[in-house]
Amino acid sequence: MLSWNTKSSLYEPNLHDINQSEILHIGFDDTDSLEGKCTTHLAFKITRFLLDNSDAQFIDYPLLVRLNPNIPMKTRGNGAVCLRIKAKDHEKIIQELRLIVEKESAINNGANPGVVFLNGNPIPKMIKDFGAIALYDVQSRQIAEKVAKKHCMSYFTFGNGQGIVGSLAAIGSLEEGDYTYEVIAYRTRDNCGTYRQINVTSVINYDNRTFPYTFNNYDQTHRRVLIAPHGPDPVFCGIRGESPEIVVSSLNSLCVEESLEGYMVFRSNQGTDMHLQNQLQLSSIRPYMSGYVVGTVTTTPQVIQGGHLFFAVEDTSGTSRPVAVYEPTGITHIASQLERGDTIQIGCGVHLSNTASQVILNVEYISILSIVQTYDLSNPLCTFCRKKMKSEGRNKGFQCDKCKYRNINAKKIPIPHKRSIQPGLYIPTPKSRRHLTKPPHRYGIEKSSWSRPNAELIKGWFRLL
Ligand code: ATP
């Protein structure tokens, strides 16, 4: 079990009577590289700094915003962070955080950090729109800077400055719509890079106990723990769920065999399918967009070596595009039974094919809307013996083996074929889901929107251990 450091920062916000001009939204992104570090860990450090060194009160949980997962410039899960606080001396905080982001980012290892500040509430529509588009399309640095300047926002960029896109988008996100929580526990510096010891039984136990209010804990089919990454980054584990209380109590019930630095609860768009809300028209799709397509299957699915599967889909614009369903998704057995004429909706990312000569839709879910009746063709029966006749060759009719009756005009008879797939929703297996993928059991328990300012954060949303 985890043990608490009683001297750690406990925080009880008083959120009534907020002076809107005291509100500061802080977005940052692109601080890590594949060799180490992690933007959420920087968020943990910055939060600790703000709680210890300023009068900051958090008016929302730190936000972990997953942006378009199909863009090429991401390192891993395309996560960006936003902190929404109430504080008096914004200028001091801005200067301090600028230095922290610069010092703590992997700038020499390929990170291109951005940190953006917005003063006051409500968040302007243009910034929310920027965030909404960054979820399913490619946004440019230039537009991000234009939007930031138009709203007199302070911002700092390092490296090539691409981080400003995620930073600004994070500020504009999670104001409306569905959301979930994740508590992320961090390792001490000495433990980073070593094997993460997690007691599997304790994961299975809390997974069973908390279902359906936590998700992506354990993949039963592949017997795999899903809460811990495998790289050198400082994340020990992350537990996702529907409320801050349930993710923290699940973490508390874990048997952890190393000492940890602490943990923090994030509010997030993970597990919401937020990137797939936009309907894509096949005639106007561009590489790296995410969304959903409604169309008709136009070619018989073909399986290639490795178990991946390809077919084509056509939408109402009359445009047809190739579709790929990859073996690790675990839904190729469903896709392989599609027939020409079936109507489907697919959640997908638009990618360039291997030869980069055309776009291809990589499937993230398949919803079969309707299936066509298919037929097997059978040889006709002999009029006299009721035995199946034999073909005499192409366009030469059929002859009965028994009575030798020959019918030059006889044709094969269509026999209705029972389809082995049914209309329904098919989602990839847990181990191959994206952070944003909505797990099947979340359908029907989505939330409508986070309410502020009366919502209070739970005690212990941030802990040092
Ligand atoms: P991690 O998940 O470990 O935090 P990451 O996958 O988030 O890493 P980053 O290092 O943050 O990867 O890099 C993503 C980069 O892509 C950032 O510079 C971010 O500003 C930018 N970006 C994010 N979404 C978009 C988008 N829709 N269009 C253009 N750029 C984007």
Q: Beta-strand level of the residues, as a percent range?
A: 25-35%
Poorly predicted sequence stretches spanning 5 or more consecutive residues: 1-15
- CATH architectural designation of the largest domain: 2-Layer Sandwich
Helix/strand-derived class? Answer: alpha+beta
Tally of distinct domains? 4
Q: Give the proportion of residues in helices.
A: 10-25%
Q: How far apart lie the N and C ends?
A: 12 Å
Associated small molecules: adenosine-5'-triphosphate
Q: Briefly note the CATH topology name of the largest domain.
A: Alpha-Beta Plaits
CATH class category name of the largest domain: Alpha Beta
Query: How many β-strand stretches?
Result: 25
Using only C-alpha atoms, the radius of gyration works out to: 27 Å
Shape label: elongated
Count of helices? 8
**Average predicted local confidence, pLDDT:** 92
Largest sheet: 11 strands, mixed
Topology record:
Blueprint: E1 23-29, H1 39-53, E2 57-58, E3 63-66, E4 79-86, H2 90-104, E5 114-119, H3 125-134, H4 141-150, E6 154-157, H5 163-171, E7 180-187, H6 200-210, E8 214-215, E9 218-219, E10 224-225, E11 235-241, H7 244-252, E12 260-268, E13 290-297, E14 302-303, E15 309-314, E16 320-325, H8 332-335, E17 343-352, E18 359-370, E19 374-378, E20 390-391, E21 398-399, E22 406-407, E23 413-417, E24 424-426, E25 462-464
Parallel strand pairs: 3-12, 16-18
Antiparallel strand pairs: 1-4, 1-5, 2-4, 3-4, 5-6, 7-11, 7-12, 8-11, 9-10, 12-25, 13-15, 13-17, 14-15, 15-16, 17-18, 18-24, 19-23, 20-21, 21-22
Helix pairs in contact: 3-5, 4-5
Bound molecules: adenosine-5'-triphosphate.
